[in-house]
Structures are given as structure tokens and as C-alpha cells.
Queue: 2 jobs
Job 1
Amino acid sequence: MMLSDIEIAQAAKMEPVDKIAAKLGIDEHYLEHYGRYKAKISLELYNSLADKPDGKLILVTAITPTPAGEGKSTTTVGIAQAIAKLGRKVAVALREPSLGPCMGVKGGAAGGGYSQVVPMEDINLHFTGDIHAVGAAHNLLAAMIDNHIQQGNALNLDPRRIVWRRVVDMNDRALRNIIVGLGGKAHGVPREDGFDITVASEVMAILCLASDLEDLKNRLANIVVGYTYDNRPVTVSMLKAQGAMAALLREAIKPNLVQTLEHVPAFIHGGPFANIAHGCNSVMATKLALKLADYVVTEAGFGADLGAEKFFNIKCRYAGLKPRAAVLVATVRALKMHGGITKAALAVPDAAAVKRGAANLAKHIENVRKFGVPVVVAVNAFPTDTADELDAVLELCRELKVPAALSKVWAEGGTGGLDLAEKALALADGNQAAYQPLYPIEMPLKEKAALIAREIYGADGVTFTKEAEAGIADLEKLGYGQLPVCMAKTQYSFSDDPALLGRPQGFTITVRQVRVSAGAGFVVMLTGDIMTMPGLPKIPAAENIDVDKNGRISGLF
């Protein structure tokens, strides 16, 4: 009988975290233990490594996601385990899972099969409390905003133009739009408000882009919380909240160390959204890993048009990272869906559908190469894949002159990814990489959005609503024009219409609204119907999660 992910994880024999740390040369003095198998890394160690040369960074990204699943996190863990089997000093750098998706549709987010990070239950449920700390810091600011208005509103903040909502780390659609301040004069000033999920908070994006604690505090100070009656931005520094917020994040900023099933060191830290934010783990965890390991395998959220684009244009730009190679994950199942096959019919062999859907893969390969980063395709194998279907993907890769390898890391762990690892290492060790962002930072905001739409999505262009046009003009007047652009778009299509699968053509992207994340350091352009507070499905994953009298959890994926 096939074991579930959680059963595989629970059967694993983990090594004490100090033994995992020793593999990277970390002395126990720098570990702050959260039990036997989890630890935070002291900032003292992080700061002491500034002059040490970096290892080589490998990004794992994917084709446009479908409900069939791509296995990006599983591949990330699996290829790192394979690199370790090849005798190299390697570490993993991943995001922390949010409770919302764990309890909703997605389930756990720690990899799968025999390529997981453990302790799986802890990582998926609360972990070291980082996301809760982000929520506390965010909601402290929300409370201080309403208190400022209640206490006389010296900053002349317009209650109708407050952009700082509240957060909770759960999918809860009932909180999307609320009224606060009801109950009379003593209870505040009534106004419209709402909740986002915590991982959509700008505080989370800041935590993951900050280079150190001082940078974190400075970025928090720059957050725009709203606007005055005469259209001037009100920032956190004006409310004098940055110090207290940073104090709440003092522990959360420290990277977390755990391990994979094969005892490869894994840094799991931070978890911003990949559409409303940049969708990558923290800069500090990535930099720490690069100082301690010869190779670091990381990932970016959703497909390469979202996570990888923002990894290259935002994270690498701010952190000074120079990735040496990228791994692009594809599956026969997902390519068949992009080729027009419904999820219910995926079990029926159809190499022709794979070939049709492979246009999506081809576009993602082109996109990664536009950043000067060489790419290898990981064909994540499923038991239902036929030889003809797999050959169709590999043949396309040969035509595009891109290396490719079958990946069986879910079923076989690192052993199932040796061929993939060797190809990725060949790219990382070679001289092909010449990373560069897609656009210069000086380019006007509208031109940045148009360039991303044309070059990455394949759109004919971008249209802006009147609201978006006015918002962009205001932001440029306020001095925010020379920030990177973060496109908030559906993850299910290159377009802003989730129904357009494959490689759509002849479409335009509509930007309906813009927001500035001045602390994080980017301008968000919203397209389509992007939700910052998801809802639970009809049958949420939470219905299947349980814990027995001994504390053993079941049903978590």
C-alpha cells in the first residue's frame, strides 16, 4: 500500500538539528533550539559571514500551474538530496507554508513523497511562530492607525483612504470586508476595513527582502498606510510604529534550520504571496545558505511568469544575487491540461495533447533565458505517464536545445533525481550564466508593466483603467516611480484570464488598480480578480486533519 506524505514523514528517522547544522560548519553556539529538530540561526553568525564567498544558487520554477499539480517543492527538495548524493555540500532554501492553504485546498507544503522537509507537521502548523509574529506586527500597526484617528487625527489621515487592512493566517472569506469602530464614541471611528491573509501582508514581503534587522526597521518605517485629505501619503514613521513592529519581529527575522528526509540542511523562512508580492523565501535565509554551502537550491512561487520573474526582477536585484542555473518543472499531466484535456480525462494516454500543451513549456524556457540564466527541464514523472507522452516532452526539449531529465524524486528521493542533478550542476558550474534583470530600474512604471506583459506573458500590450492611470501618476509624483513592478495576476494563465491555458496569443493585460508597497520596495499592479483573502472550499482539507491522544497528527496531506 502506498504511504501518504505525512505517513512517510512520520516514519522518517530525523537527526538532531545540531548534527544537521554541523554539516554546514555551524557551531551549536549559534543555534536557538525549538525542540530537537528545529532551530533558529543566531544573527551573530549571519553577520560574521558577510565577507565569505557565496556558493552557487539554483532556482527551481515551473510551467503554468494547473489543478493536476507540478511538484515544484518536491523537486526542489529532491534535487538537493541528489546533489548531496553526488558528494556536494548543498542546502535548501524554501518558504514557510501558510495555515490558510493547509486547511483549505492545497494541504501541506513541505514537498512530498520521499522528497520532503521535516518535521513536516511542525513546518505546516505554526512552525517557529514566524507567520504569527508577522500578523502581530501588522495588526499592531492597524490598531495604532485607528487609535491615531480616535485620539484627534493630528496627521489629518482620511479614514476613507486607509490602505492598511488587518490580517489573519487563515482562509476566511467572511472577513474580506468589514466595518470597524461601531458601538459609540468610546469604541473608535466607524469606517470600512477588511482582512487579508497574513502571507499577503507587506510586513511579510519586508521580512523576506530585508538584509538585516536595521534594514527591516527602515523598510517598516517606509510603509504607506493611507493618505491625508489633501492626498499626502502617511507612513509608519509618522505614526512612530516601526520600532515596536521590529521588536515583534526580532525573533522572526532569524532563519529557521530543519532537514530533508535524507538529512540535507534546509532553511525554511518567510512566505510571501507570489502574485501580490514576490513569492520567495527570505533574502537572509538565502544569503546565509550561500555562505555555508557550495550549492543552494531555492524556489519561487507559482509558474515562472510570476515567481521566477519576481525572483529575478525584485529579489535578485535587491539582494545582489546572481543565480547560476534554473530548473523548470513540468509534468505530462499539466501539459495535457494545457493541451485541452480536462482533469477527469488525464489518465487516458494522449501524446498529441502533450505536444499541444508543450507550447506553455516552450514559452517558460524562453522567459528564463531572457534573464541570462541557463535552464534544465525536470519532467516530474507520475505512474500514469506513458513512454510516448514522456518522449514527446523530451523531444520538444531536444528541439529547443535545452537539457532535460526525468525526475522520480517523489518515489525515490535523491536517487530519483541524480540525472537531473548532474545536468543542473553542469549548468551551475559552467560559464553560461549572465544574470540581468529584464528592465532598468529607471524605466517608467507603465513601461515596466508593458515590457513584462510583452516579454514574459506574450501579450500584445497593456491597458490601464482610469483609476490605474491616476494611481500611477500619483505614485510617480510622490517619488515611487523608480521601483520594480510586481504584477498581481492569476497564476493559471500567461494572461489575466485563468481560462486561457497553454500559450495564449492576441490578448492584452488590463491593469485595474495600483498600490505601492513602499517598505518592501515595489509597486503592485493588480490585474483580473486577485484575492488577498482566500476562502475555504466546500470540503476543506481541515475536515480530514485530526490528532490522536498521543498527539500524532493525521490527514495533513
Job 2
Amino acid sequence: MNATVLWDRYQDWLYYHEGLSFYLDVSRMKFDSSFVAEMQPKFDHAFREMAALEAGAIANPDENRMVGHYWLRAPHLAPTPEMKAEIVDAIDRIETFVTKIHSGAIKPPTAAKFTDVLSIGIGGSALGPQFVAEALSPDLPPMQIHFVDNTDPAGIDRVLARLGDRLNSTLVLTISKSGGTPEARNGMLEVQNAYMKAGLKFSEYAVAITMEGSQLDGVAKGGGWLAIFPMYDWVGGRTSELSPVGLVPAALQGIDIRGMLAGACEMDIATRVEDVKTNPAALLAMSWYFSGEGRGKKDMVVLPYKDSLLLFSRYLQQLVMESIGKQYDLDGELVYQGIAVYGNKGSTDQHAYVQQLREGVSNFFLTFIEVLKDRSGNSIEVDPGVTSGDYLSGLIQGTRAALYENDRDSITVTINEVTAQTVGALIALYERAVGLYGYLVNVNAYHQPGVEAGKKAAAMVLDLQSQVMTILRTETAPIGLMDLAIKAKMPDQVEAIYKILRHLAANDRGIVLSGNLAEVRSLKVLLK
């Protein structure tokens, strides 16, 4: 297209929301009017389904759950008065608790105030809080935040070492819907042990964010923890940032949680509009469908041109891939749906993989995230009449143009600045886009059987480890791996048994592997 045609197309497809100072440009996605017309019946269906979802329809039949993250920022839309009251009460309790923490009214036994927050969680209980912390935490927050988001012992040690002698002034959040998720449970037990070794009573530092009646709820109540905040049956992990899961750690850092909720609410209103061209989430979903032919044939590369939005692509990975990545559609047909998401930040990645994006395999579409305001205050000129922010703006415009010239599609999301309101709006925008896209391609965006399958497989490995150790305790001489597998009645799991034993041996757990380590078949094992 020539420049005049492109300018006309830009004006025709540019979406602008005045209240949020938000722009969405899909003009560099090469769909035409006939494609838009073909998509209309699918969108009519998607809009109806989204309306039913917000009204309280069961959207996760596997677990008989509603999906109500939209009610978190508009409690009056909740389907029952009890649910509305629960949402409102939780936000009020969060603010009251955080005020007492910041003032020192609630304080640790051996320090004047809590100085740090240690947040323990996995998946949506970590990715959202981490993204928001990076995006919005003040330079000098009232409390510094740290995360344990894995069951890696060395990683946990590293976080605890960085806290050092501030452990006695660190508030610990354990975030888990059930309390049984291994990563969160293990992190809590590891941190609890660190407090015990330091001579500190863990319950005087501990807060739980969990479902009422869960395993963690019982532990917190029984142990007399400082506070318990709710997780809701009707909010999935990847859409939980604007629930207590994300609001508690954000508020402790001094982030404006009411602003995030207000921004999300305003975006929700904009994305309920049942007209594709004036609905930004629908424009995103349509663009994704067009680029990947409704089958996810192209990856989504996300490039925020702002350091504070570094973790946005990581947050979107879970939101998009866990929601859309499905083997079967709603009719039980084998479909293998999904959109792969990756990215880091601009202009850093212009010195990393943009070379391939422009000239290599064309298996992606790009999403630029542009922030108009460079910084708080004035900027120096690094060249005559040019600031560092001008360079950043030039790089995003130049990269967008260079990619389009080589037949690479892109979307550009533009906000005025990174604030609580705009971050809340971005979260809401992509939540709605994922929901609409799920209905366009006929998959359930609100369950995740693959995640549960992975958890079950991990549990089976640990059960096998227990069986193997029980057998080894009865052996008085070294035993071969296959003989051990046969005794465990698991001859088809000999590789898993070998890997279990190798891990135990490396960690001085009483396992001795004898023989040539390069000749796995010949290895024998003995328990010290």
C-alpha cells in the first residue's frame, strides 16, 4: 500500500478511548472488509456468550464454576447480593489491613514496622503480582516486595539471603487457592523453616490468601496467622490480579488499587460494546484470528517500549496460552488450538531478535506497546532538539514501518503513561480479548486440563520415588536398575526410576550409584 492508502486505513481503523487516553491501531493487520463481514456471525455468538458469562452462566463445566473476574471491578454486576458484599468487604478489609501495617499498628514483635513483603505463589498467584510490581511500584515503596514463585531450593535460598537480617521485619503472603499446590506449599514450608531457625514465630509474620475451607485456610486459622483474605471459586488464577491475589501485594507496596480497579472497570464498559469496530478487545481478537487463520498459525510477539512493562509479555503468556491452548473444542472435536506468546521489551529486542522478525521466517504477528509520556519531568537533549525518549519513539515507529515493508503484520497499543488506571485497563482489555477469541475458535478459555495432567504426572513420579526407597531399604547388596524396576512392578518406568535415583544421589540422600555413569544399563544402586 502507498502512504496515502495507509494513512486512510490508519484513520479508518484507529480506536481511541478518551477517558483512558488509550489508542489501538490494527491498521497494519492486512484483513479486508470481506473478512470483517465473514467474522460478524462469529462475533454475534461471542458477544452473546460473553454477556451470559457475566450474568453468571457456568463457563467451566469440568468444575461447575462460574467465571466472574469482571465482577471484581464492578461488584454491582455480581449475580447475588452475597457475592457483591464479599467483593466489597474484601477490598475494604485489604485497605484497613494495609493502613495498619504501614502505620505500625500491626507490627512484627522485634521491629517497629514491617519493611518488606515476601509473596509466595505460582502461576497466576505470582505472574500478575510480579507484573504489577514491576510496572507500578514506587521508586521508594513503603515496603519492598520479593517473590518465591517456584519450588527451587536454591532460588528460595537466594531470596532469603537477600532479605538477610530484615527477615524479622518481613511480612509473608502465601497465595494458594487450595493450599495444596506443591510450589506454593513447599515455598511456605521452606520460609516457615527459615523463620523457625531465626528464632521467629512464623504466625506473627504470616498472611494467607486462599479459599475459605481450603487446606491453607485451616493452617492459617489453626496457627493464628495475622490475616486471611479470600480467593474466589469463580476467579481463575490467570484472571486473579484484580482480586485479593494481586490487590494485597500491590497495596502493601503503596500502589493505587482503586485506580487499577477503576481502569479495568472503564475498559470493561468499552469492551462490552457489541460492535467490532468500536470494541478494542474485539479488534484484538479479530486480528489474532486473521493472522493465525483461526488456528494459531502465527505466534504473538509482544514488545512493550517501556522498561516498567518488561513483564507484560510474561503475564500475557499465561493469560493467552493457558486459556486458548486446548486439544479439544467445545464440541469435543480434536483441534489443537493455541497462540504462542513471547517477548521482552523494545528497543532492547531490536538488538536481539528483530533481525529474524524482519527477515526470517514469517511465523508471527507483533504487538507494540507504546507509552507516550517519557518520564516525570523534563528531558535533556542528547542530540540537538532530540531527547532519549524521542529516540525510543523513533525506534518504535521505525521498527513498525520496517516490519510492515517486509510483509510483517503488527498491532500497536498506545497509552499516555503507565499508571494504575492504564495497567488495570490493559489487564481488562486482554482478559476480554482472550474470552472473545475463545468463543471465535470454539474452545473453553476457562479451564486447563493440561495443567492438571502435569500435576498428576508429577505426583506419580513422587509416588514412584517412595516405592523405590521402600524397596531399597530391604536390599543388602547393590541392585540393577531393571531388577529394581521389576521389584517395584514398574518395568516400563525404569528411565523414571534412574532419574529419581540420580537426583537423590546428587543431593546426598543416601543413594549410591555404582558402575560407569555413561553406561546406564550397567548401573547398580544401594542405599547407604
